[in-house]
Structure prediction request, 160 residues.
Amino acid sequence: MVQMKLKKQYAALPYKHSKSGNRFLLITSRESRRWVVPKGWPMGSRPAEDVAQIEAAEEAGVVGEIQKRPAGSFRYKKIFPDKKISCEVAVYPLKVADLKDEWKEKAERTRRWFSAKEAAALVREPELSELILEIDKRFIKKRKKQPKKLQKKSKTFKRG
Prediction:
């Protein structure tokens, strides 16, 4: 059996915290309109996380802080009219600070926020689905409220 070399791609997984839990931003692909994460091919000598951040800006209008290391990866087949390419995609969580009203691929894509369970159910790639759920549980620190007693003490605490 012939093993084909996997082509590398880099993706951002945009997220935000909300009162109801973490939310993940997915976009539609240009051709099939299925739900995907912003991703793209390597760009010369640019670091992978920079490529993922650029793709998130171009494909979804996302501005934010990206992690320097991937949280994981997934594989899929990129389908072109004349061929299929096997790809391995490194996924970088990106904490969203702002969503632009206008962005490069706005006319070609839809973007929408989902819970981790919703996002995991909507993407077609099983490894990406598992990764979204894993990132939700392990890699994104959820906001925790301090007990009121601690809040009061921290306000009045002074260093001597």
In short: The radius of gyration is 18 Å. Confidence is low (pLDDT under 50) at residues 143-160.
